[in-house]
Structure formats: structure tokens, C-alpha cells
Amino acid sequence: MNLPLEGIRILDPSQVWAGPTCTKILGDLGADIIKVESARRMDIARGDAHNPQIEQGMYLDNEPTDKPWNRTGRYLDRNRSKRNICLDLTHERGVDAFKRLAMNSDVVIENYRQGVMARFGLSYEDLKKIKPDIIMVTLGSQGATGPEVAYGSFGVTLEQTAGVASITGYLGGDPSTSGVLFPDPLVAVASVGIVLSAIRQHRETGEGVYIDFSQREMTSSILGDMIMDYTMNNNIQSPIGNRHRTFAPQGIYHCQGDDKWISISVENDDDWKALTQCMNNAALENDPRFANAEGRHEHHDEIDEHIDQWTSKKDAFIAMEILQHANVAAGVVNSGEQLVHDPQLVNRGFWEYSGRGPSDARPYLSRPFQFSKTPGSTQLPAPLLGEHTEGILREVANMSDEEIAELAELGVTASDPLLF
Amino acid sequence: MSNLASPLDGIKVLDFSQGISGGIATKMLAVMGAEVIKIEPPQSGDISRLRGPFIDNTPHPEKSGQFLYLNMNKKGVTLSLDDTVGIDIAVKLIEWADIIVENFRPGKMDEWGIGYSTIEEINPAKILVSLSPFGQTGPYKNYRGNDITAQSLGGLAFVTGDPSREPLKIGGEPAEYFCGLSGFSGALVALTYREINGIGQHVDVSAQAGIGVAQQYSGLSYILTGNERGRRLASSPLYKTADGQVGITLRQTDWPGVCEMIGRPELEHHEKFKDIDAREKNQDEITSLISEWASDKKKQDLYHASQERGMTWGYICDAKDLIESPQYQHREYFVELDHPIAGKLTYPGLPMRWGSNQWDLKPAPTLGQHNKEVYSSILAWDDEKINEMKNSGII
Fold first, then answer.
1. What is the CATH number of the domain that holds B162?
2. Chain centroid to CA A69: how far?
3. How many independent structural domains does chain B possess?
4. A47 pLDDT more than 50
5. What does pLDDT average to over chain A?
């Protein structure tokens, strides 16, 4: 089967979440991804090398083994479809090897703190000297310039500083962060298109480019309504829980069983009629106070009580089926277990199995899109630290066996982390 | 020579989509240089025009913040697809386009006779990008869905919020945006393949699958460890300041810095707080210590002071804080655009800088603004024909 991105090579020293997820998707679709790590500083998604934290790490089968860095859930999911080279970039021979890899790559994607690549001697200017048409993408939390450029952040920080948290939270309550560090996957999925746009420009003009991509700004970019409401009206939006600013009612309601829920969203008057008919509640249907969205917003609490009384006696899946058959937007609030068995995701092949051998094969997350002629799929299980070092040096950096042996002897390459 | 960034220069996009998911997908293509023709129903226009927020909170189709933000750099034309004449015109526009984007309910394009099989027949190099709540196939394909259904069925809401309360969605429309940005990236994947192999295809984006990717931890925890992650207290709890909230990270390496910040350096090695286990047992005491200390401080002062100490604290930015952010101001993230009816407004700009080139940002079209330009250049209509089509309600 053809892969849509065959022939593209990406040199990827990015770490943690956003960068690795972007390159995972590119790798699933056929790009050759060379993940660069160092024995001094592995991808921190690999967890603590000598003090594995079982709960945090989500280790495969809860077993860190004697090489826990190759078994954390975060690392395994985000690093499929890549080859791995372990290279010490604080050593001049490591830098030299990186440059020789860059000469035969199309794109470098990195998310080190500002200045780190320059300290290695691997800034865009440095790389341009050896490959004038290189494309380089810096996925910085704050971008590559500005007074806060050196500030660190995680997804949970960005939810705060980009504005998402200011409108997330229960109605009338304090702002809140999400349970999923949303900015990372958001940046990852958008950067796939950004990288391919740069490759397209290169195909047309022969020119490379340096792309300074701010994760914080990307996250603010999904807040069009909230920001425009302020720039137009000086209105500062605050959390409204599971409600919607236009649709009413909208909420997450109890269902039968422990921690079982359904979301229901009434977008218009027809939906309202359909919902009340599903509930067999003519009094609600005919109550003039609820005839339009304005009235339903005003009496949202009262309406919520009626809906909750109805849903709480129903199985969530049955309630969803009843409502969807009446053309009302409703969705089971899937737990982790339910998500893995979700009929729609399973039917569409969302879960993709990979692992090092049959006993380690598990279903991992695939992609938000499907392609009719070039589907793409997991190409390789997540690599061990330094698993492909020799092959990459031989084939991509054109190194001789002697040079490769020398780098290993100098400790520039390695297959185990250096423990301090 | 211009110094404008335009990496997608020369790409022609026909945009049947409405609302947020389609709006952001084709906006990304448009601002990066593609020529995007946006089709809107005559009279009512894109649904975003009806949803606001509106200038002065007064509904007006040309003064919707949602529409204005999502439709920069596009050409706007009106066309009724409820009419066979309209469909024939749509086919001609499809012939013109490299990429076609739509977010109707699955199957609707086929009913009109302009589904992927027709498009492929016209020219197999064409790319159709379909955005939908659940995808074009599968048992839920005909289900209704929007932002909250995607956050629910995609596994995100279950792990967000207070463990003792109902699950919580992320505010705004993040699932719609995630779906649209996936559509942008999916279009570029298909375009990359087409530019090398000359073959187009159908790109099928699911909002539920998008959130399925975004939730990560909930699914992985169950798959790899058998445990539900569930709703849990934030890894970076928020504390009230005099003017808002700060998020304070309490990893092992942060603890000495936290003690120093709150002016209690002696607590660093205190029996009750010396390691993670001890601190977990005495979490309430830590919370009250930090809360009391933070209550009369300013959130931005704490943010900057912590970051200068190498800690990754955040502060809750509302819209005003974003506009006033020194970082955003330095990077000129916000831009001002002048729209013929909405006037001068400040908009979020693009999150990426493209070498030393500038983005060429233009305001969203008014309803039917480019009818004359588009229909005369692509369909070779004269003024008389345009008027005739307008009077008969086709455009």
C-alpha cells in the first residue's frame, strides 16, 4: 500500500508530547522519522530511568522491568513509526553526526528551550551553512522571541497562559484546567499541516524556511469567540460549565450506574421538541417559557432537573440511542474502558495495535483522519533507546564502520541512559 | 519582490463548509496563500453569521466575531444547493478547484450528486476533505454531534473536572477547532501525495477521533495498566491571588523554590514536607500555606517571579490578559483588520512566524462580496447573468 509521505525525512530531536506526536503522525503516513535522543538526557516521556514511578508512568502491564525507559505508556504511544538514534549533542562528534544527518534530511523539528540548539551549534543559521534549503521548525512554548521566551511550560501551564482555563470550569465556579493537557495534541495535529506547507513551498521554490511556532499562541487561536467578544465588546467570558452560549439546554447528565453520564445538546427549537417527546413530557414540550432558546437559557436550571430525572433512570447507551434516533445530539461520556470498546472508533479502526512481539502488542491511538487511497498505519513499534543508531549513521550520515565504532567508544552513541 | 509568506500560493480551494470546524480548516489554507472560495447559502449565509458574539451584542450577519475570525482571507460567494441549477454551478466550481472542503452530514454531498465518486470522475487528482462529528463510515455516522458530544464520546470529559461532580467539558469549542485543524493537516497530507503522484483522494476527518487522540491518558491508562484514570485533582493546582489565580507546579524539583517563594525556606527539609509522600499526607497544610501567602499578591508578579526561578508556574489569562500580555505584544500576535461593515477590530493572528516574511491577513468577506469576481472569472458570466441568478435566488 502506498504511503502519502514516502520520501520525506525528518530529523526529530523533539521531546515530550507535541513534537513527538506530530512526527508520529508523519511517520504513520510514511515519512522517515529519525528520533534523536541522548544518553545524558532522554525524552522525559520515558520517565525516570532508575526510579520508575509506577502510577505516573503507565508502564506496559505495570511492569517497569530493568529498562523502564522503554516501557512508559506516554513514550510508547507517541513514538511509533520512528527510528531512534542516541547521540550526545554536547560532544563535538555528536554535533558533527547530527549535521551529517541534517544534510540528508528535509526538516528538523525541535522543542528545546530557547538557546539550547544554538549552544549545541545546531541553530537554523548553523544548519543552513551545511544545507542551505533545510526547513527547521521550533515548537516553542512561547515561540522563539519575546520577553517570556525562556519561560518553561507544560500543557497544564499553557491552558492557563493561553486563556483556555479562563472559560473552563463549573458554572459560577473558578477557572479550571482540563484533565488531558489539551494544548499538546492540538499543537501536534496543527503542526503536521504546517510542516507539510513548508515542504510544499520547498518543492515549488527550492527554498527552506525557519518556522517559529508558538504553542501558547496556537492554543489561544482556538478561542476565537472568547477573544472577539472582548475586542468587540470588552466582555470577559468566564466558565459556564457544560452549557453553551447559544444552544440551550446543553449539559452532562446522570445515567444509571456509578459514574455514568450522557451529554445532551439542544441546538434549536426542533431539537427541543424532539427531546421533550423522547422524555414523554408534554408539559415540558408545551411550556411557553421554554419555547425558544432565550427562554430555555433563562430557565436552564429547571430544565436540567427535568432532563436529569429522565436520564438518571436510563442506561447511558440506551438514552443516547433514543435521543439520536430522534435526531438530538447526545453522547455517552466514555470512560477509558468504554473508549477502547467504543463501537464507532472500533468500527473505523481507530485503535492500532503495535508492540515488540505479539505479547506486547496493545491498541494505541491512531489519527483523527483517514485517507481513501493512502491510509497509512503504524510502521514500527516505538523504538528502544538507540535501537537504530548504527544503521542510521551508516545509511543516512554515510559513516564508515570505523567511525561508527569510534563514536560508540567515545560514548557519543549509547544504548542505555547514563545514570547519575 | 514581496516579502509576504505564501507557502500555499497557487492552490485552489472550494469551501462548502460552515461553522467552526470547516471555518478554521479553510482559514488556515487561506492565510497560508491558497485561493479559497467560500460558498454560503444566499440570504442566511454561514451559520457562524448567526451565532456571534456580535458587536454591541446585537445580532447582525456581518458583525459576528465567530464569522469574522474564522473567515479571514477567503472569497465569499453565495450559491443555493437546494436547486439543480445551483448544483450544476457547484460542479463547475468543483472543476476549478484542487481541494474541496465540506462538513455536511455524511451522505449529503452524494444526495446532491456531488459526492466523492462524482468528484473523482471529474478528475481523480481532486481532493475532497470531509469533516464530520463521527466520520463518513461506522454505526454512528448519521448521529448528530457537536463540540460537547465529541468531548464526551472522545473520552475527554470523563477525565476533566472534579472527581466528586459531573464530568466537565473544556470551555469554548475545542473539539470543533481540533477537527478543523485536523482537516487542514489532512488536506496537506493529501496534497503532498498528489503533487508527487498526481492522485487525489477523499480525506475523512472525525471530530470524535480527534478528541480520541487528544485525551490520550484515559485510553492509554486503561489499555496498558487496566486502571481508569478518572477525574483527579490538577497536577498544577490553582491558587487565588488578589486579582485572579496562579497555577503552581509541585514536582519534587519545585519544592525548594516554592518554599523560598513563600518566604518559608525552613520548610524545605521539614519532616512533614521533605518528600512527595510526606507532602501528599500534609497536602491540606501546604494548600493553606500557599493560599494564605498568594491571597494578597498579583498573579502576573508570581508568574514572572517563579519563571525567573526556573519553575513553570502559570497564571490564568482571560481575554483582557491575553491582549495585554507583554509576550503577545512583543510578538505582535494580535492584528487589526478593517472590515467594510464591522469596521476596525483586533483579531488573534497566526501562531507561527514564517522566516522573516509577514502573513498577508485580510478581513472576512461580506455575504456574496466576491460573486461578481468569481462568477465572471470562473463561469464567464456577464452582469446580466449575475443579476438573473441573483433575482432567481440561485446566488
1. 3.40.50.10540
2. 20
3. 2
4. yes
5. 96
Q: Which residues of B touch A329 (CB under 8 A)?
A: 143-146, 148-149
> How many Å apart are CA B316 and CA B322, to the nearest integer?
10
Three-state DSSP at B53 gives coil
Choose the weakest-confidence range: A154-163, A253-262, B120-129.
Answer: A154-163
Q: What is the pLDDT of residue A382?
A: 96
Is residue B261 one of the residues assigned to a domain? Answer: yes
Q: Give the number of other CB atoms < 10 A from CB of residue A203.
A: 12
In a 13 Å sphere around the CA of A391, the CA atoms on its Cβ side amount to 6
Model pTM greater than 0.80? yes
Q: Which residues of B104-133 are buried (b: 16+ CB within 10 A; e: fewer)?
A: bebebbeebebbbeebbeeeeebbbbbbbb
Q: Using one digit for the tens of pLDDT, what is the confidence trace for A320-357?
A: 999 999 999 999 999 999 999 999 999 999 999 999 98
What CATH number has the domain spanning A250-340? 3.30.1540.10
Choose, out of B2, B46, B188, B246, the residue to mutate when testing the contact with A (most A CBs < 10 Å). Answer: B188
A109 interfaces chain B, CB cutoff of 8 Å = no
Please indicate whether, in this complex, the C-beta atoms of B314 and A160 are within 8 angstroms of each other.
yes
Same domain (yes/no): B124, B42 = yes
Q: What is the mean pLDDT of chain B?
A: 95
Q: What is the pLDDT of residues A403-416, one digit of tens each?
A: 999 999 999 999 88
Compute the distance between CA of residue A150 and CA of residue A380 in angstroms, rounded to an integer. 35
Contact B209 A368 (CB under 8 A): yes
Same domain? For B212 and B245 the reply is no
SS3 labels along A226-244:
HHHHHHHHCCCCCCCCCCC
The number of angstroms, rounded, from the C-alpha of B47 to the middle of its chain's C-alpha atoms is 16
Domain of residue B273, CATH code:
3.30.1540.10
Per-domain boundaries in chain A: 9-221+370-409, 250-340
B103 pLDDT above the threshold of 60: yes
Task: With beta carbons under 8 A apart, name residues in chain A contacting B166.
Answer: 242, 252-254, 261
Q: Do A261 and B236 touch (CB under 8 A)?
A: no
CB contact under 8 A, B188 and A196: yes
Is A365 close to B216, i.e. CB distance below 8 A? yes
Nearest CA in chain B to A190: B181
Query: What value does the mean pLDDT take over residues A248-270?
Result: 98
Question: Quick check: is B5 in a domain?
Answer: no
Asked if residue B221 is part of any domain, the answer here is no
pLDDT tops 70 at residue A420: no
Better-scored residue on pLDDT, A114 or A10:
A10
- Residue A272 distance to chain B (closest CA, Å): 14
In chain A, the residue whose alpha carbon lies closest to the alpha carbon of B343 is: A232
8-state DSSP, B54: B
Q: What number does CATH give the domain A9-221+370-409?
A: 3.40.50.10540
